[in-house]
C-alpha cells in the first residue's frame, strides 16, 4: 500500500484530530505544557497531521496565505463589494495597510502556521519514541516540516515560538528572524542525508523529500539578507554575505540548490503553463512539493484559489459558482502591457468537438458535457484560464436551476451580468476607480470592477470549494526565477537572462494560435526581472517577500488604495490575543 494512500485513511484522520486537540493554536503557556499529551501511537499518523495542516485553510483558503502574501502585494486586492466582503474591514486592511494586532486575518493565520509548528513537534516526539521501520526517514520529514512552518512564521511575523520536543519541560524559545534563519538553514541541511529522493521510499511530491528541502533552502538563502536587516530604510540588503555553510555567498547557495533541482532531470517545464494548476495536476511535471488534494469522504480539498476571483454568476456547473471577491491590481495588470501574447497571460479552452470558448461575444453555444468528480456527474462549463478582462460570457440558469440549453441540446452562451447588481454588466475593468481613493470600497453597481485571476482550474463539484487540484508550494518554474535572481544579484546578467528566457520560450500558446512559444527578451535588469517573476509566479503566495527583496513593498500604489508604508510593516504584528496570555513574546517594532 502506498504511503500516500495510508495518509488518506480514516485511521489517520482520527489520529490527526487527536493531534489537533492536543496542539496549540494561540501558544499560551498552559496549552504548550500539554502539546505532547494524548499523542497518536503511530509515527505515520503523527506525520500525516503535520501535512494536513498545509491544506486546512493555511495554503488553500482565500483567507490564508493568499491574503497574507498576495493581497498585501502589487498583484491582488480583496475590496468591499457592495453588500459583500465588508467583514469589519479585515480584507481591506491587508491592502490598505491599516492592519493591527487584532486583525482577524493576521490572528487566524498565526494560529494556523504555529499549529503547524506544534504538530511538527508532536510528530518529532512521537517518531523518536516509536519503532517504525522508516524511523530515520519519518523523523527527517518531521524536522523538515518543522523548519518549513517555522520559516513561514518568521517570514510573516519576524519571530517564531520553538520548544525542544525531546526535553521534558523545556522552555519556550522565541526565534528572532535574524538568528532564526541561520538555525533553520542548519537544521534542514542536517536532515538532508536522511530524506528520500522523491519517488523513492514510497515518497511523492506531497511529502518533504530531498527535493523539497533543496527548494526550501533556496528560499531561505534568497531571503536571508532581508531577515538579517528587516527594517533597512533603503532596502539595501547585503545579498553577498557569506553563507551559513558550504562556502561562498548566500546567492552562491541559492544557485547551488536550485541547480540541483534543475539539473536532476526529475522535473520539466510544462509547455501548457496552466497544466500546473489543473484538476489533473497530480502528475504535473513541474511540481516539487505540493498539497495533495482529493474530493472524497475524508478530504474535500479547497478550491478557493480559483473561486475567490470569479463572479457569483460565473458557473462551471449549475451547482457551483464564484464568490466575486479578489481581483488583480491595476498596477499588476498594467505590467503585462505588450505581453498579452505571453502563454502565461491567458489560455482559451477547446472542447472535444473542436469548439473554442472565445469569451469575446462570438460564442453562441458549447457542447453539453458532464464531469464526473467523486461520482458526481453534472454539466461542466469550462471557463478560460489566466487573466480575464472585459465583458464576460457563459451559461445562465433556468428557473429550475439547470444550464440554459439551445434547441439542439448545447449549452447556451450569453453575456453575463453581476448576480447582486443585475443592471451591471459583468465587465471586468482594469481600473478600480474607488470613490474614495484611500478606501477599497465599491458601491453595489461597481462590483464588476477589477480584472480577475483564473489561474487555477475550477472544479464543478457542488459546495463552492471542493477540489482535486493539488496546490504547488514549490515547482520548477519558481526554482528558475530564484536562480535567475541569484545570478543577477551576483552580476551574471547573461545567466539570469538565459533562465528567464527559458521560462518564456518553454511555454506555448494553444493550437488556436499555432502552438507558438513565448518570445524571448533581449536584456534584463532588476526591474525587468521583478516583472518577469510576477509573470511566472502570480497568485502562488510568494509575492510579498519578492517585493520586500526588491525594495518595492513600501511604495504607494495609489490606483489600488495602498499608501506609502514604513519598513516596520514588512512584518505583521504578533496577534494581541497571544500577547495577552504569553509574556515570552515582545511585540514587533512599530506595533
Automatic annotation (TrEMBL):
InterPro entries: SusD_RagB_dom, TPR-like_helical_dom_sf
Signal recorded as keyword: yes
Domain RagB/SusD span(s) in chain numbering: 286-591
Subcellular location: Cell outer membrane
Cellular component aspect of the GO annotation: cell outer membrane
Keyword vocabulary terms for this entry: Cell outer membrane, Membrane, Signal
PROSITE patterns linked to this entry: PROKAR_LIPOPROTEIN
Keyword Signal applies: yes
Major site of localization recorded for this protein: membrane
Similarity field: Belongs to the SusD family.
Designated name of the protein: Glycan metabolism protein RagB
